[in-house]
């Protein structure tokens, strides 16, 4: 296994931490590479050694979160649907300020597309198109319908539009999904 230089990790962590902090406080549109480098206490050259621009940085952070969600889904694959949904929603609760900032910004559509694709992929693993409830309905339409529903609830939860405990919301979503898959 190749050993990564600690300075690289330290620089990337500083850049990502500064970016996330500014994303939460100011919103994506207000962030500049200059702001990131000042807050992270690094030079612009160091930033560009790791990332092309703020969009590339955002994509990397989103991909890291989706990788963590994939790991969670892999670990929960043997759990009941509702129990697995609770674990999944807990992840969003733990990272609520970050996800709320992404949902608030019109400039982060790539995040929403990646999240929807991820959600649809997870639903597809459980989807049974042979049941009477789903017979004769196009699989892609079912996935898009259920995926956007889950994403809408996640968005409402992280933006505090749903004033309920995360476990309650997750159980409700899990029950709805169980009934429709």
UniProtKB/TrEMBL annotation:
Gene3D superfamilies: Tetracycline Repressor, domain 2 (1.10.357.10)
Annotation: DNA-binding region: 32-51
One Gene Ontology molecular-function label: DNA binding
Domain (HTH tetR-type): residue spans on this chain: 9-69
Source domain of life: Bacteria
Keywords carried by this UniProt record: DNA-binding, Repressor
Protein name: Transcriptional regulator, TetR
Source species of the chain: Bacillus thuringiensis
């Amino acid at each position: 296994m190749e050993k990564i230089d600690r300075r690289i990790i330290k620089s990337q962590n500083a850049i990502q931490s500064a970016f996330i902090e500014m994303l939460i406080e100011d919103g994506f549109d207000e962030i500049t590479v200059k702001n990131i480098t000042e807050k992270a206490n690094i030079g612009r050259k160091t930033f560009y050694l790791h990332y092309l621009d703020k969009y590339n940085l955002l994509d990397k952070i989103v991909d890291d979160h989706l990788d963590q969600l994939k790991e969670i889904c892999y670990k929960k694959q043997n759990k009941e649907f509702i129990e697995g949904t609770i674990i999944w929603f807990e992840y969003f609760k733990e990272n609520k300020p970050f996800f709320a900032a992404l949902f608030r910004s019109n400039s982060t559509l790539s995040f929403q597309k990646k999240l929807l694709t991820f959600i649809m992929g997870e639903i597809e693993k459980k989807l049974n198109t042979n049941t009477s409830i789903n017979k004769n309905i196009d699989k892609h339409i079912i996935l898009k319908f259920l995926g956007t529903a889950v994403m809408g609830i996640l968005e409402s939860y992280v933006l505090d539009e749903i004033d309920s405990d995360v476990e309650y919301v997750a159980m409700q979503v899990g029950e709805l999904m169980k009934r429709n898959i």
